[in-house]
Write a structure and sequence with these properties.
Blueprint: H1 14-40, E1 42-45, E2 52-54, E3 56-78, E4 84-89, E5 96-97, E6 102-107, H2 109-169, H3 175-233, E7 235-237, E8 242-247, E9 254-255, E10 262-277, E11 289-294, E12 297-311, E13 314-322, E14 334-351, H4 355-359, E15 363-367, E16 373-378, E17 380-384, E18 388-393, E19 400-402, E20 414-417
Parallel strand pairs: 1-20
Antiparallel strand pairs: 2-19, 3-10, 3-14, 4-6, 4-9, 5-8, 6-7, 8-10, 10-13, 11-12, 11-14, 12-13, 14-18, 15-16, 16-20, 17-18
Helix pairs in contact: 2-3
């Protein structure tokens, strides 16, 4: 029986070598790719060319930039109460006017005819009233005469009646004669009473006629005064002293009632009219302040009036100067105003910079603690004012962010600051 030969195992079988080689190649590929990718997505930048800003927590006041036009504080518009044809023009646009100065004159033929007709009507009514009053006085005299006659007859009959009464008692006259005298007396008493009552009613009726005529005459007088006032209004005068900034009228031109003829600006103080995007209409309130720079100084404005009508996506507000007005400011100038929105609130803040143009506020390069590297990080910005962004997510107070332009960085994940 032959001995079995011991077979020695090979230390590095081909299978094992192949598997180890595969793992090594895989690791090398991973390392190569990682190093290559890292080098590809890393950029060396010069630190002195960058603006690095600190993230802080502090009071935040939202502002919006608006454009305002300087206007006079008080403007009077020349809108005629009556229409007419332009007869004469006394002033030209651009002139200074004093209160009461004649600016132009209109002519209205219909109004002249109306006044003539009303004057004739008033004259006729005045005559009617005078004639009625005269007739009343004549009637009053006639009534007095009539009443005097009746009283005289009554007095005579009273005497006859009283005498007959005594004679009848002594049987000196017949009963028939006495009763006749008595009946006549009683008739005259009744006649006097009826006459007085009739006269009173007639006088009351005639007096009411006079009262009615007087009321009608007063109304006519008032209407005539109104018509004459309208005639006066055809002469357009300056309601105040100031600058006649515009006048739209030519001799012979017809103007309707209420049609704007021009305007006078009172040269005492200015206000500012600004147009604002309708997006902010619910957030603008009376009393909001704004600031603008002019001739080396900063001046404050206060919102005094809001016009809610929206035209072409914008609404208007009037602002007035808080404190003294800037010296040298002129009507029609355009001001660049920072208008506050809402109250001051605490927020995480990042100074504004050129990075926003590239990232839209969605990401930024944030420095590590050493300050030698900056890594791309997603962030979320909220409200803003001319100085800072409100940070809602992604940054904490104390961190540092590159806020200058990212235009030359491409899409690098990491920056190395040299």
């Amino acid at each position: 029986m032959g001995m079995d030969r011991k077979i020695e195992k090979k230390k590095w079988p081909p299978k094992k070598i192949a598997s180890i080689a595969g793992v090594l190649i895989f690791v090398l590929v991973i390392v190569y790719l990682f190093v290559f990718k890292l080098s590809k997505s890393t950029l060396n930048v010069k630190a002195e060319r960058l603006t690095v800003s600190a993230v802080t927590r502090g009071p935040f006041q939202e502002f919006i930039p608006i454009l305002g036009e300087v206007r006079p504080l008080t403007t009077y518009y020349l809108d005629p109460a009556e229409g007419g044809r332009v007869e004469e023009i006394f002033m030209e646009a651009g002139e200074m006017v004093k209160k009461g100065d004649k600016i132009l004159e209109l002519v209205n033929t219909d109004l002249h005819l109306t006044i003539m007709w009303r004057e004739a009507e008033l004259f006729q009514q005045s005559n009617n009233l005078r004639n009625t009053r005269l007739s009343m006085e004549q009637y009053r005299l006639q009534l007095n005469q009539e009443l005097t006659q009746i009283e005289n007859l009554l007095l005579q009959q009273q005497r006859t009646y009283e005498r007959y009464k005594e004679l009848y008692k002594d049987n000196l006259i017949a009963k028939h004669e006495y009763e006749l005298a008595k009946d006549q007396y009683e008739y005259l008493v009744k006649r006097k009473e009826l006459t007085i009552e009739s006269q009173r009613n007639e006088l009351q009726f005639r007096q009411s006629q006079i009262d009615s005529l007087e009321e009608s005459l007063e109304r006519m007088q008032a209407n005539l005064e109104v018509a004459k006032k309208k005639l006066e209004n055809l002469t357009i005068r300056a309601p105040v002293g100031g600058h006649l900034t515009s006048l739209s009228a030519e001799v012979g031109e017809s103007k309707a009632p209420g049609q704007r003829l021009g305007q006078i600006d009172v040269l005492e103080g200015f206000r500012v009219r600004a147009g604002i995007d309708e997006h902010y209409i619910a957030r603008i309130e009376i009393g909001r302040t704004g600031e603008f720079d002019f001739a080396g100084g900063t001046y404050k404005l206060i919102t005094k009036r809001i016009y809610p009508e929206v035209r072409e996506g914008r609404f208007e507000v009037d602002l007035e100067f808080d404190g003294e007005e800037p010296t040298g400011i002129r009507r029609g100038q355009t001001l660049h105003i920072k208008l506050e929105l809402g109250d001051i609130s605490e927020a995480i803040l990042l100074p504004k910079g050129g990075f926003f143009q590239t990232t839209g506020g969605n990401w930024a390069y944030v420095l590590d603690e050493s300050g030698k590297f900056a890594t791309k990080r997603r962030i979320k910005t909220g409200r803003q004012n001319p100085q800072v962004f409100e940070i809602l997510e992604g940054l904490e107070p104390g961190e540092h962010v590159i806020t200058s332009s990212y235009e030359s960085f491409g899409n690098m994940e990491r920056l190395v600051l040299k």
